[in-house]
Amino acid sequence: MSTARTENPVIMGLSTQNGQLRGSVKPAGAPGGGGGGPQQQPFSQMKGTINNGSSQPAPTTNAVIKPGDDWKKNLKLPPKDMRMKTSDVTATKGNEFEDYCLKRELLMGIFEMGWEKPSPIQEESIPIALSGRDILARAKNGTGKSGAYLIPLLERIDLKKDCIQAVVIVPTRELALQVSQICIQVSKHMGGVKVMATTGGTNLRDDIMRLDETVHVIIATPGRILDLIKKGVAKVNQVQMIVLDEADKLLSQDFVVMMEEILGFLPKQRQILLYSATFPLSVQKFMNAHLQKPYEINLMEELTLKVHCLNTLFSRLQINQSIIFCNSSQRVELLAKKISQLGYSCFYIHAKMRQEHRNRVFHDFRNGLCRNLVCTDLFTRGIDIQAVNVVINFDFPKLGETYLHRIGRSGRFGHLGLAINLITYDDRFNLKAIEEQLGTEIKPIPGIIDKSLYVAEYHSESGEEVKP
């Protein structure tokens, strides 16, 4: 049984108005788009650039810039990016990078990266970060988060001090290398900012030797930086800024203990910047414990947050077919469009569609031409599709009866099924009321969902779980 991604695209003969949408099919596990940084290089090509302090890229211009010179004309700008951009990066206030009173050498690096104007997350973050205040920011990947914290970080580096002044912690080796490369490129005109990347799976001795020289900025994964700190090699007693990129992952059960330890070695007067696409309870607890009156930035509306969660579910669940419920016809069509943009195929159906279109969608979905169906409560009664093993309440219902009919679309005729609810703060009262009406407990989703709970092939005829 395959996952929610559709391996073989099906040729469609209907317009999107009839409820059938097809996303561009991408291979399972394919990474999403980057954040506008330079193209990722193989580690073998980057190691010397990042870990060797003497290989910091030399400034591209050696001429002394005199007062009154047009310094921009000497920049080596990359080709202008003419691709269409989404509102995540275009819906700005109209600010310019020069508005933030940044060092000219830093501005030169910014423009030579091809960053013409700050994106919304950069507009919100840069002036606050420059003031020294803690930040909790929610923004999607690919919207300029790296620039949002690297620009103020580099602006505040004091080259007269030969010590580690800033630490950026990321959850993966690949992201550490990417952020390091961006940091090196942006700072290349600044006259000697030393940037080091250190991650698990690389030679620890090389890192120890590198830290015997001057390092101003470290980009690291949690385990490696903690190891270097404990060994007394990475001296972080003068760190003024620490950044947690993808804080929701860094503060999950896998890393949170290490993160607490790392903070214990830092000065008490330090600036903490948290960037996260989602805002789980772990991030809230960490913020309450360690951040001082943080400035909160939220550039992810409820729909975007839920779509992010839905994308994660699609990648982690073993879905045969799924039905996704929304509370309005308009919401159904909007969500179906979002799902197709993620690269998944989906149909949609609601009461405002013509009957022949609804019949066609139902017939094709029942015959397995698509894995995901977005619908309203029109689809909750008298509909039996045995292949459906996952139901998702994208919008939580208001009545217990509606909830029962929705989740009853999975697990038909004694087969197993799974129901998942995406709950917002405003849903808390309906959630409690439905639990009381039905005399049940709707439990938080676990980190790993046992496939034997909803995948029929993991059970034998006797009801015992079958080990794959």
Describe this structure as you would to a colleague:
The chain is 34% helix and 12% strand. By secondary structure, it is of the alpha/beta class. It has 2 domains: 16-29 and 303-458, 3-Layer(aba) Sandwich (Rossmann fold), CATH 3.40.50.300; 43-300, Rossmann fold (3-Layer(aba) Sandwich), CATH 3.40.50. Helix 15 links the parallel strand 12 (388-393) and strand 13 (418-421). Helix 1 crosses helix 6 (173-186), helix 5 (145-155) packs across helix 6 and helix 8 runs parallel beside helix 10 (256-265). The relative contact order is 0.12. This is RNA helicase. Its EC number is 3.6.4.13. Residues 43-63 have a biased composition (Polar residues). Residues 126-297 form the Helicase ATP-binding domain.
The succession of helices and strands, N to C, reads: EHHHHEHEHEHEHEHHEHEHEHEHEEHEH
**Helix content range:** 25-40%
CATH architecture group name of the largest domain = 3-Layer(aba) Sandwich
- Total DSSP E strands: 13
Helix count, DSSP H or I runs of 4 or more residues: 16
* Coarse shape: elongated
Termini distance? 12 Å
Briefly note the structural class of the backbone. Answer: alpha/beta
Radius of gyration: 25 Å
What's the structural domain tally? 2
- Give the CATH superfamily of the largest domain: P-loop containing nucleotide triphosphate hydrolases
Largest sheet: 7 strands, parallel
pLDDT < 50 stretches: 1-17, 22-63
CATH topology heading of the largest domain:
Rossmann fold
Task: Tell me the fraction of residues in β-strands, as a range.
Answer: 5-15%
Give the strand line-up of the largest sheet.
4-5-3-6-7-2-8
pLDDT averaged over residues: 81
- CATH level-1 class of the largest domain: Alpha Beta
Family: Belongs to the DEAD box helicase family. DDX6/DHH1 subfamily.
Catalytic activity: ATP + H2O = ADP + phosphate + H(+)
Protein name: RNA helicase
Pfam family, one: Helicase_C
